[in-house]
Amino acid sequence: MIPLEEAQTYVLAGCERLPSRFVGVAEGRGLVLAQEVVADQSVPPFANTAMDGFALRAHDVAAASPDAPVVLRVVGTLAAGTAPTRPVDGGEAIRIMTGAPMPPGADAVVMVELTDLADDEATVAVQAAVPPGNHVRHPGEDIEPGQTVFEPGEELSAGHLGVLASLGIDRVSAHAAPRVGVMSTGDELIDGPQPLAPGQIRDSNRRTLLALVAEVGAEGIDLGLVPDTRDDLTAALTVAAGRCDAILTSGGVSMGAFDFVRVVLDELGEMRWMQVAIKPAKPLAFGRIGSTPVFGLPGNPVSSMVSFELFARPGLRKMMGHAEWHRPRLSAVAASDLRRHQDGKTHFARVVADVGDDGRLRVRSAGGQGSHQLAAMAHANALAVLPDGPGVTAGEPVGVMLLR
Predict the structure, then answer these.
(1) Given strand 108-111, what is the order of strands in its sheet?
(2) For residue 46, which of 110, 112, 142 has the smallest C-alpha distance?
(3) Can you list the alpha helix ranges (DSSP code H) found in 199-259?
(4) Residue 256: per-residue pLDDT
(5) Is the pLDDT of residue 289 over 70?
(6) CATH superfamily of 20-41+151-175
(7) Are strands 246-250 and 292-297 parallel, antiparallel or unpaired?
(8) What per-residue confidence (pLDDT) applies to 203?
(9) Given this model, what pLDDT does residue 255 score?
């Protein structure tokens, strides 16, 4: 067996960042920037009000109070999207709506709740003093010209897209989302709700892996359930290598006498077949068909998902241009015993994580820990990392990888 870190290093070395391309901002969510974004203008572009109220000179209302309001002449109204047509002079105010530009001469805004507008709207009684700059948003307060707004490697989220729109940027250089082909193999597998014949099971791995590919931000390509014959596998893998940026297979990577996945992958590409010192997901294959990375994941459902988390997900994130490839490991407290036996492997226990009343992260077993027990994996939102040994007892610290 080889250490987990060695296997991960080998896999990541075989996953290259995809070329960058210019994409429209509207299609950019989830992609990773390939170039920095530098602002060429101010945000906000002009001084404007953060409140509905009255724009005025702060010194005119320095003595205002509820018992002694200061009365000012109302000389206009400014709505958002309109430009001021006259300045504010001493003893004057302009009614102003949120987002409207500050008129010349005004240096503060008093919110409407602290005023009393006369019935004829010719004057307003201001009931509170305000300092200069009150409720005023200044040009460049958020972003200044020449400022590096985003760095390469940042994933474009909703907030990023909003900033780009505010700067008038409609195209950015980003790494493409990889097209990831997902296939299942095994003559015991069937699709659909039809009754199972003796020895048959329904294929779950393709559904879970396609969903995991989508969660990581890549485009999943369903390559179907491929019969476990040399000709069928050769044809399917050859086509997949030509149309996909990466391939995921599940099943046929162990030492079974009737598994042709290993035979075909060795014929088509350069593969390394590994036994990794982890449980579940010990068997792993990784290599390339041409320039296309191929992840050969184990066939047991939980093993397939854990293997994806430890190897395929980091590899795909590297291809997408992310700066961080692995899920972070956090410190938690075991809320229940998480026992294991000593076998020279690191165990990844399926657990449910939550935050206790003391603010600390707690984890408890999600249920059955067999590599075939997918229901427990579905309930789990984290993996507890148990080094070789007896495990941990309730109340002891434990490292965890949060899955969601």
Answers:
(1) 108-111, 53-56, 92-96, 70-78, 123-126, 115-117
(2) 142
(3) 205-216, 230-243
(4) 55
(5) yes
(6) Molybdopterin biosynthesis moea protein, domain 2 (3.90.105.10)
(7) parallel
(8) 82
(9) 57
Q: Which residue has the higher pLDDT, 261 or 43?
A: 43
Residue 134 has a pLDDT of 98
Of 124, 172, 123, 122, nearest to 152 by C-alpha is 172
Whole-structure pTM value = 0.86
Top CATH class of 4-18+177-319 equals alpha beta
pLDDT in tens, 98-125: 999 999 999 999 999 999 999 999 999 9
Structure tokens at 227: 């019969």
Domain boundaries, the chain: 4-18+177-319, 20-41+151-175, 48-137, 329-402
Task: Kindly give, in sequence order, each residue whose CB lies less than 8 Å from that of residue 194, ignoring residues fewer than 6 positions away.
Answer: none
Q: β-strands 136-137, 189-190: how paired? A: unpaired
Burial 238-267 (b: 16+ CB within 10 A, else e): eebbeebbbbbbbbbbbeeeebbbbebbee
What pLDDT score was predicted for residue 254?
Answer: 63
Query: CA-to-CA distance for 296 and 167, rounded, in angstroms?
Result: 44
More confident residue, 372 or 8: 8
Q: Which of 162, 151, 182, 164 is nearest to 322 (CA)?
A: 151
CB of 116 closer than 8 Å to CB of 70: no
CATH says 48-137 is which class? mainly beta
